[in-house]
Amino acid sequence: MENIADIVHIGELIAVSKVFHLNPFQMITSIEEGSVEVFQTKESFFAKYGSKESYDELEDWCELNNGKVFTKPKSVN
């Protein structure tokens, strides 16, 4: 398993956890489980989801000023 600290800085984690209404521990768990995706660049996000006005397949998403994009896909229940 990949080390989350190699992917996400603690400051990024805290900022995004507020957007997704999760605490930092829940964010880490969600990233590990794959229910929150981390894209290192906007281009890698666009490669998966495309460039469009809205993303109906995502529950929420957040772009940081350093170019990282965090997504929370809608869960299929």
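^ that was protein a. below is b, sequence first then the tokens
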Amino acid sequence: MQSNRWLSANSTTANSTTASSSRASSIHEDQQQFFASKEECHLKTNKAFDDWENVLKGLTKPAQIHDETLKSAKLFTQVDSLSNSTTLSMEKTSKLLDRLLDRKLGILAATKDFNDIQASLDVNPIARKHWINQEH
């Protein structure tokens, strides 16, 4: 009966070893599944964050486009007002140049008149005689 006991003790030990190794392997498999599911969860979370980021970027793009449109419109109105002021300045400058041209023509007419008067008086011979007399 003793040998039977030993066999039964051996078989109990073998069964407990098998049971503990199967429990260890079951725990190891559970941990692997946990870590695999944890990694999968992290990947899904990262993907969800990336998706939200893309959605938010998509939502902010129309706002950015709107802001850029407003900036362009403001710059266009500034260019328009600068164009108007430039046009006014050019018109004033043109009028001023016309007045200067009129004055120049008046000055040229007066100079021509002086030349005509000098030619009709024939002052040169008289002036030469005067200078020559003063030298002697």
